[in-house]
Amino acid sequence: MKEKTKIKSVAVLCSGGDSPGMNCAIRAVVRTAVANDLDVYGIQRGYAGLLEGNVKKMDASSVGNILQHGGTILQTSRCPEFHEEEIRKEAAHILKRKGIDALVVIGGNGSFNGAWSLHEEHGVSVVGIPGTIDNDIEGTDYSIGFDTAVQTAVEAVDKIRDTAHSHDRTFIVEVMGRKSPAIALHVGLCTGAENIILPTTEDIDFDQIVSDIKRGISRGKGSSIIIAAEGEKEGLSHRIKEVLKDKYSIDSHTCILGHIQRGGNPTAHDRFLASQMGYIAVASLINGEVATVAAQRNGKVLSVPFKECLGKKFDTDPQFIDIVKTLSI
User: Fold this and answer.
1) pTM above threshold 0.90
2) Are the C-beta atoms of residues 186 and 269 closer than 8 Å to each other?
3) Sign for the pseudo-dihedral over CA of 43, 44, 49, 55
4) Cystine design at 128: which of 29, 183, 273, 293 (Cβ 3.0–4.6 Å)?
5) Is 158 found in the same domain as 135?
6) What value does the mean pLDDT of the chain take?
């Protein structure tokens, strides 16, 4: 690797919502850079921290004993100002003044678009590492944090199922996913939910939900679990509860899992994925690539063109829906 490098320094930041496994990616970026004699810098609080000049040099010891922890040691933030061209120009100047040749951005779609603009407008060498629990970035099969978020939600629903069964109750469990159906689908399938309501659902079929609940009751099943993605408007699970009560006389309980899905120790899968992505990110820069994403495709992590990962994926695999309907009878 060392003979191919044209860069002497690299910086890494996290942007947008945090996701379990970001620390693993930071660790891999820093240690891969150090191993190849590059100066490496950590930027605190994402793009906002970059604009503030909150940049510190890191070494191998800076990332010791962090891969098992959730969150991000570099912290993260959302930076609406970065939508402005003049603000991005200043960010590029800051990187240049500090002698930073390339930037690794760990985050989701908005973070990626900011990095791409830095490259397009100012020639900054950038690499993206997909880090979002929603798993909604185009061009990669998985993003860091998704597996942990699903596992956290599954464990919570398993506990709720115990109570639901003990009291013959229906529970509506709200998981994250404003636009992406990924968490709701995976959690619903893994927990044997009787119904799944996706953020892409335009009209909730309450008649079908009630029919499924009654079908279970008819065969001696007193409890039901409904998984609902949070959607873009707050209070979805409570609205579902009200309709079931007012229109169908079915009592139910709501449980909003919320931000516990973002926290916690990353799973082995997320640690493995993030470590590979961090390594590939720096390797691509050393190999002279200037605008790439470390993406997972067909089980392998590789460097792909940045432009292939700028969109969001919201499609629902029909097979998942068929499996859920078949197995929940």
Assistant:
1) yes
2) no
3) negative
4) 293
5) no
6) 94
For 115-170, the pLDDT digits (tens) are 999 999 999 999 999 999 999 999 999 999 999 999 999 999 999 999 988 888 99
User: Quick one: pLDDT at residue 77?
Assistant: 92
DSSP sequence for 41-74: EEETTHHHHHHTT-EEEE-GGGGTT-TT-SS-TT
Distance CA(161)–CA(175), nearest Å, equals 15
158 is in which domain, residue-wise? 147-263
Supply the CATH number for residue 170's domain: 3.40.50.460
Annotate 70-88 with DSSP letters as a single string. Answer: SS-TT-----GGGGSHHHH
Nearest to 209 by CA among 188, 230, 190: 188
SS3 222: coil
Cross-strand pairs, 300: 297
Among all residues, which ones are annotated catalytic?
Answer: 134
Contact 305, 291 (CB under 8 A): yes
The angle at the Cα of 70, spanning 64 to 74, to the nearest 5 degrees, equals: 60
Q: Return the residue matching tokens 């970026």.
A: 29
Count of Cβ atoms closer than 10 Å to residue 296 Cβ: 20
DSSP state, 220?
T
Same domain, yes or no: 139 and 165: no
Are both 293 and 242 inside the same structural domain?
no
